[in-house]
Write a structure and sequence with these properties.
The complex is a heterodimer of chains A (349) and B (229). Chain A is an alpha/beta fold. Chain A folds into two domains: 174 residues, NADH:ubiquinone oxidoreductase-like, 20kDa subunit (Rossmann fold), CATH 3.40.50; 112 residues, Cytochrome-c3 Hydrogenase, Chain A, domain 2, CATH 4.10.480. Chain A has 15 helices and nine strands. Chain B has a single domain, classed as Fumarate Reductase Cytochrome B subunit (Up-down Bundle), CATH 1.20.950. Chain B starts with a helix and ends with a helix. The relative contact order of chain B is 0.17. The chains are: A alpha/beta (349), B mainly alpha (229).
């Protein structure tokens, strides 16, 4: 069977050359590349054969799939996503049961060593029955699929860092993809869910240059995760001037002041929300009046309360402080008593 | 556990505990000592008048000004910079407010009737920089001056280090210095603060709690003995 190239597929869906080039320029910009590379991206994308993609959803909520497939209208990003040869994704594919599993096995066999593996959801390492697909536990399915993959995209915070399933007390022993697979290039695209354009951007880069993008220490594409939300936030000047909303309905909130005091985690969160935005570039959570919850950071669910200011660390509680006061006072009184005894003895001599 | 989680969690809890235990131990150990017996008739029984020594010793004496001016100016510069940065930088204030709420069960604003003011970041940055510059100046002066060098020991240098470190790491975190991830710089800042808290009760930094009591006590003794303040 001969698959169409990406260019052929896009043209058949009515995407004009102008729109396509605009998309390529925007992609180059989003990836931090010179826009002069847009024609090269366009040429590479046009000629790209659909890469085989196997998408394994493990312990997840389908939010990542929703984000990618339904957040936008019929944009070029979503068309590119549809155009890849998504050989297995049990939420989206029509086939079910044995037919679906056979499709996965066939795609793996036909494209061994070349397919792209997308994983969303964390992997339980406890009881193998915690999460299964067609009777196969997630851990063994991931290991089997990863062995033949050219690269792996860990989509969403659960796949990238363990996410909510790995939050304390982590009853299933949930881990990230990178804790299981050690010998394949892994691109973490965290977020709960991740931004759609980030995944298409990563795909476009992979199709154009045939390699994974430049990654940070947490294996995230630097182009999208290179700066904090705080660094690029349009409310940053209010932070600098010390103008904060003290609650979600006070004068500061109405004036659009900084949300640091009401728990915004923007200063420690690396993502492109403030620049790429959501819903076809409409806005992002802070623009909608809510602080960032840091969903693209490791362990975000266990980082204190969403509405606690970032600087209110886990300092203890009244009981520990009270105990410390008691111990300190006892030591002080005891040492003073000893000193007084010595004073008396000295005065007696 | 990441460095930041460690710094924001167990390290912070332990350092605060050690700080409280150490400070109370030393304060009560001194404050509960007995006064020495008078070896002669007291000249002035209204010893409380000697408390004015607290103010007198906080300001340079004209006759010694030439020799003490540098230390006085630099001392005030770094103390003011340090304290303003500590108590009026918004994230710090939020931390203190959270601690107060955890201990008292109510907001500070509700308790004292007014909000705790914060200063714009520009002012905090400027004062922190002044503080660091003054601390570097006094260190150089300590090393260059033969007398000061002779009477300095590990406590002096280490106390200087744990004082300047939170300022330097705080500014580095604020400015994202060196391109390091913010959370790593923040973790360094927290660890440096924790180092300060642990060292505080056991070194010369304890003067923060004892200096005014010591001056007052000395003043009262002098007054009682009829010595000129």
């Amino acid at each position: 069977m001969s698959f169409p190239t990406l260019g052929e597929a896009l043209r058949s869906r009515g995407v004009s050359r102008r729109d396509f080039l605009q998309f390529c320029a925007a992609t180059a910009s989003a990836l931090g590349l010179s826009t002069t590379l847009a024609p090269r991206i366009a040429a590479a994308l046009e000629q790209a054969r659909r890469p085989s993609v196997i998408w394994l959803p493990f312990q997840e909520c389908t939010g990542c799939t929703e984000s990618i497939t339904r957040a936008h209208g019929a944009t070029i990003e979503s068309l590119i996503f549809e155009t890849i040869s998504l050989d297995y994704q049990h939420t989206l594919q029509a086939a079910a049961g044995d037919a679906a599993e056979q499709a996965r096995e066939k795609a793996m066999k036909d494209n061994w060593g070349q397919y792209l593996l997308i994983v969303d959801g964390s992997i339980p390492t406890g009881n193998s029955g915690f999460s299964t697909i067609a009777g196969h536990d997630n851990l063994s399915m991931l290991k089997e699929a990863a062995a033949g993959a050219a690269a792996i995209i860990a989509l969403g915070s659960c796949a990238a860092f363990g996410g909510i399933p790995a939050a304390r007390p982590n009853p299933t022993g949930a881990v990230s993809v990178s804790e299981v697979v050690k010998d394949k290039p892994i691109i973490n695209v965290p977020g709960c869910p991740p931004i759609p354009v980030v995944i298409t951007g990563v795909l476009a880069q992979y199709l154009t240059f045939g390699k994974v993008p430049e990654l940070d220490s947490l294996q995230r594409p630097k182009a999208f995760y290179g700066q904090t939300i705080h660094d690029r936030c349009y409310r940053r000047p209010f932070y600098e001037r010390g103008q904060f909303a003290d609650s979600f309905d006070d004068e500061g909130a109405r004036l659009g002041w900084c949300l640091y005091k009401v728990g915004c985690k923007g200063p420690t969160t690396y993502n492109a929300c403030a620049t790429v935005k959501w819903n076809a570039g409409t806005s992002f959570p802070i623009e909608a009046g809510h602080g960032c919850i840091g969903c693209s950071q490791p362990g975000f669910w266990d980082q204190a309360g969403f509405y606690q200011p970032l600087s209110t660390a886990n300092w203890g509680n009244a009981r520990t402080v009270g105990t410390a006061i008691g111990v300190g006072a006892a030591l002080g009184i005891a040492s003073a008593a000893l000193a007084r005894k010595r004073q008396r003895a000295a005065e007696g001599n | 556990m990441s460095l930041l989680e460690f710094a924001r969690g167990p390290a912070l809890q332990w350092s605060i505990t050690i700080f409280i235990v150490g400070v109370l131990w030393r304060l009560l150990g001194v404050f509960l000592l007995r006064s020495k017996k008078d070896l002669s008739e007291p000249r002035n029984r209204a010893a409380w008048k000697g408390l004015r020594l607290i103010g007198l010793r906080s300001w340079p004496r004209r006759e010694f000004l030439e020799g003490t001016a540098f230390g006085e100016v630099m001392g005030y510069a770094f103390h003011v910079g340090f304290l303003v940065s500590l108590f009026f930088f918004t994230p710090h204030v939020l931390f203190f407010a959270d601690v107060a709420k955890g201990l008292l069960g109510t907001d500070l604003t509700g308790l004292i009737g007014i909000g705790w003011p914060t200063l714009p970041n520009g002012i905090i940055t400027f004062l922190s920089a002044v503080s660091i510059a003054a601390l570097v100046a006094v260190l150089v002066h300590r090393i260059v001056s033969p007398v000061k060098r002779l009477i300095s020991n590990f406590d002096d240098y280490f106390s200087w280090f744990v004082t300047v470190a939170p300022l330097a790491t705080g500014m580095a975190a604020f400015a994202h210095l060196g391109g390091y991830p913010y959370e790593r710089l923040l973790a360094f800042h927290l660890v440096s603060v924790e180092l300060l808290l642990v060292w505080f009760p056991f070194g010369k930094l304890m003067h923060a709690f004892t200096i005014f009591a010591a001056r007052g006590s000395t003043g009262m003794i002098f007054e009682r003995r009829g010595a000129s303040l």
